[in-house]
Give the backbone structure.
Amino acid sequence: MKKLTIAIDIGDTLLDRSTKNVLMSTGNYTYPLFDGALDALDLLIQQGHTLVIISKIDQGDEEKVISYLVHHEIISYYVRPENLHFCYERDAKGPIAQSLGVDVIVDDRVQVHNAMERFGVNGRILFTEGHDDRQEFELTASVLPAKNWLEVIKHINNLST
């Protein structure tokens, strides 16, 4: 099994924002993760893969997002602090992924996947759980759709052989 560097988005990929909870703005740490997300991350690190987070956030939200990730032990247990990367525009994810040598990206946005081939990221998993399949961009890149984290694991296992 080949060891991969796997980039993961936060919103609508790890965190289920389809619920009406308020995201971290009041220290609400009950904002749900998608079912199976932590088990999947655990399995990926047990398999020897390197996990990084590349996520678009709003300026000024860094502390709230980091606090949430630390509270849920995503940072430090699953993802090393130095492997946490934020950007303020989705188009910035590609250059970050390229600089980190990312092999696979798991993201819910078509726009992100369309750009990744230019940056050498050939493993592209489009996370679709919780989506109504309405995207603002047409998919032009080859992606592996995943309805849940179990399907993400299956795709990554296939990509690592």
In short: The chain has one domain: 14-159. The chain has six helices and six strands. The helical segments are 37-46, 62-71, 74-78, 93-100, 110-116, 149-159.
